[in-house]
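Just scan my protein:

——
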Amino acid sequence: MSEIIRFREILLELRKAYNLKQEDIEELAHLTTNKYSRIENGSQVPTLEDIVNIGKVYGLGSHEILKPDLTIPSFDKLPTATQKVALQNKSIVVREKKSWNINDNILAVLNGYEQNENFTNSEIIARLPKELAEHMKNRSIEWNRGILKGVVEKTGRKRKGIIMINKRPVVSTKTEVEYRLVRKA
């Protein structure tokens, strides 16, 4: 994949993560009318100044916004002006679309574990908020991506997880990979 295509994908991913419109980015990044749109759709190559200004919208330096493994910054890391626009836009979003910040919720659960404590995916998922746990049912947590990278490691063992049913611990029926909390995020 070419760097320019990857950069366009990053721009789209960042913009959609905060429900920003192309016009919002143009205003926040001090770009001329429709310039951001042309950059995002690939009909115009951004200048270094454009990249720097777009990065500032998300509180990122040009070296960060160009990284192929960019992690989307948490909302509280955004500049105040971007937060205000994102919050304004959020209030007009159709509420049927449910979206969770899965990694932040997983990190919150992991904060209840001690360093070097072992667990399975199902044990973490069982401790997530009910709707998110339901959404994550039969899914695997991607431990080597984004903010979760380097927080846990595989122990090399497998075991049955312990899940909560009606507020009581129950041994899971399936064998799972066991993980260890390496460091708190």
